[in-house]
Amino acid sequence: MLRLKGKVAFVTAAGGAIAGSTARLFGKEGAAVACVDINRESVSKTAADIVAAGGQAIPIVCDVTDESAVKAAIDKTVKTFLKLNVVLNAAAFADPLLPLHQLDLNLWQKTFDVNITGMFIVTKFSIPHMLHAGGGSFINISSIYGARAARNRPAYCSSKGAVRMLSKSVAVDYAKNNIRANSILPGPVETPRLLVANKNMEDVVERHKPHLPAARLGHPEEIAKTAVFLGSDESSFMSGNDCFVDGAYNAI
Which domains does the chain show, CATH number per domain? Predict the structure, then answer.
């Protein structure tokens, strides 16, 4: 059974590990996918992979902080696939590890511009199309650090906490219109981004060991499977929720 058959999805950061994996799984489950990213090469590959697997996809190069570019990207999606049902908001920026008093205002602003303002812009221009379609689902990628603090990450933690509340606000305001919004809060997931501040994945596991009962990192595919559920009709009465996909990280 194709769980997203007949649906059209708009996926930001589709050139990345988590959103790319999700976009590919959306395509495999029957959705037509607009793959959106600021990086032309990576987003083109994601879309090409979906098409090669027998699915429908288009790549769109877009900066989610650019309001006119986002509107044009969503309009292109609807023009191509005729509707919009599912949005995965995954674009993110991780600020350098610094205590708040050493954090430059520009870095603080950039973190919020990408992580929450970009999500607001995408959501704003998606809602009218979902209203026209009779409903839809927003899946917003927060983080375990949107629920608990991490040392020297004030901007990232604050912005990811804001993702949760934006999701809940949309869920409440548009419930009567059959539009749902949920957040996914991943724990440490095995992606190339983790290697920016770590020598290897074993070091990441060791650093997070006190909070990893499973003694392993998550995989992008595990986040993707959660997103498919939230985008499908199987989760039709699920909205305004924080979905922890973290291997019990938050339970300790």
Answer: 8-247 (3.40.50.720)
